[in-house]
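[SOLVED] Need 3D model of a two-part complex

Original post:
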Amino acid sequence: MVIRANTDGQLFTIEGIAAALIMLVTVYLVVNSTSVYTSGDTHINDMQLEVIGTDALKMVNTPISGNGTGGQSPLALMVEKNDGDTFYRVFSNTLNNRTRGTPDSIQFVANISYVKPSDGTVNSTPLNMSRPIYGGEHAVHVSQWVMVENVKYPECSAFPSFCKGKHAALVEVLLWRD
Amino acid sequence: MARLNDDAQWIVLMGFIVSFSLFFLALMLNQSTVVGQTTAEAVSEFPKEDIRGVRTMIIDSFFLTDDGGPSALENRTWVQGEIRTLALSRQEAAVNFSHVADVTDTMGNIHSIYYIHFNNGMSEYSETYTFP
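Solution:
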């Protein structure tokens, strides 16, 4: 008697495997549908915007003389004079200009954070903005340190000698795309 | 007797394989959304620019002096205190730094040694800065 493999049910086997796979895929889709994951959740855009913003702000915070002796950066001079107009022009161009085509449309709000002479707490005063932030924007935060002297903070009239000296300040910028 | 027609088994098998590969391609397309998330989050989380900025400020502050006298410009004290305050309140980082010692090398040159520490709970950075 010759024993040979029974090949009668091959098609049924394949059909069974296919049905099992379809069920698995269904379960996979159902379980996944509870967490809808969009590309915005991955923070890749945030990271790119943060890098662009940091680079732009750092360019404004680079001394022009370039002789390595640590002259003051344009950003430090703008903070000292509270020169928001120049900051708007320089930073907006640095941030949005591209080598060709239309400029980018990154919006920003810039503040100066400093230590108040009166009580040593931290205060922020606006530098400039491209438009107000209303709360719905998904903004990222970048900052640059500057060393300034002869500042014009709101409290300076009461503390003239303090404001004449050198101080550390932090230029903080919120960036978002419309 | 009616029985299953198994003439076209190869065609069925090929269809099976093709649909299987399509399923895996769709799966890859689906996963492409989340690829890069870990990278992006790691880049955003690591305070590279905070450390660079505060380090530059600290080193600059070592070259300031407290004038005292009638002008009473306590530049060094002011700036160093403000670096600590601003880093803590605006960058959520504890920053500490100090002048450790002056050492004289075999050539008779004096080197100033400073410690710089930065810690924001996630990342920690310590440096021994020597000048010159």
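Edit: The first helix of chain B runs from residue 9 to 31.
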